Amino acid sequence: xxxxxxxxxxxxxxxxxxxxxxxxxxxxxxxxxxxxxxxxxxxxxxxxxxxxxxxxxxxxxxxxxxxxxxxxxxxxxxxxxxxxxxxxxxxxxxxxxxxxxxxxxxxxxxxxxxxxxxxxxxxxxxxxxxxxxxxxxxxxxxxxxxxxxxxxxxxxxxxxxxxxxxxxxxxxxxxxxxxxxxxxxxxxxxxxxxxxxxxxxxxxxxxxxxxxxxxxxxxxxxxxxxxxxxxxxxxxxxxxxxxxxxxxxxxxxxxxxxxxxxxxxxxxxxxxxxxxxxxxxxxxxxxxxxxxxxxxxxxxxxxxxxxx
Length: 308
Description:
Oligomer: single chain
Largest sheet: 6 strands, mixed
Radius of gyration: 24 Å
Structural class: alpha/beta
CATH architecture of the largest domain: 3-Layer(aba) Sandwich
Number of helices: 10
Helix content: 25-40%
Strand content: 25-35%
CATH superfamily of the largest domain: P-loop containing nucleotide triphosphate hydrolases
CATH class of the largest domain: Alpha Beta
Number of strands: 14
Strand order of the largest sheet: 6-7-8-3-9-10
Distance between the termini: 33 Å
């Protein structure tokens, strides 16, 4: 799959001496939803700012739809729409005017047809004559997306797109993002809501201390790094795990009423048949069982924790 964004050996060191990015290599595929995850201060905002032309790189190259962000700045920037986290809009301007003005900033000829389509796609058409100050937080965030799409970019950066909105609005925004991808826009989002990445992303990238530590297909990541647990609900509670079961990764839970067995989902053999046989030999009986797999959040926390 062709790359719409190509980052090679990208580093950024600020005047203070702080190195925010360290030799970052990253390719983002055309037409995908890519989630960039990382703790506060990991370098997410700096990386986005460099790609969007807001911060100059110290070294390395970035291509946006084939255009170098330094040597072909105007063409590269025209490929990109950026939705910032902060709700920065002209409070007393109308929705129509503020979105149309944003298109003009990129030197694009007026196109009422395109602005109308964007507003309708984002369920803003009925609000087109409303002043921004009268809109809810969720609607203002939609206006930011409309502004970012006003010049018909191929790439859209969403920085914390659902920060500060309630669960219902968050799910509405997810549908908006899926719709944009269906229209051919490549989406790169940063989020603190890991469930958002788990729900929407095609691929996940994790950045920590200015370095990309992992890029993986979401499903493959959860299969590769996720651990599975088998929980057995016992007929009779145990005070401790019998020594005859020490060969299995077991722990007691629910005040001795449950045995939890952790195993690697990637292994050809899970060890479950042997465990069940050893339980029977030990005279331990269970009335129910269920399995669950690590969430993306658990995988993310473990990845970051393991970094120095």
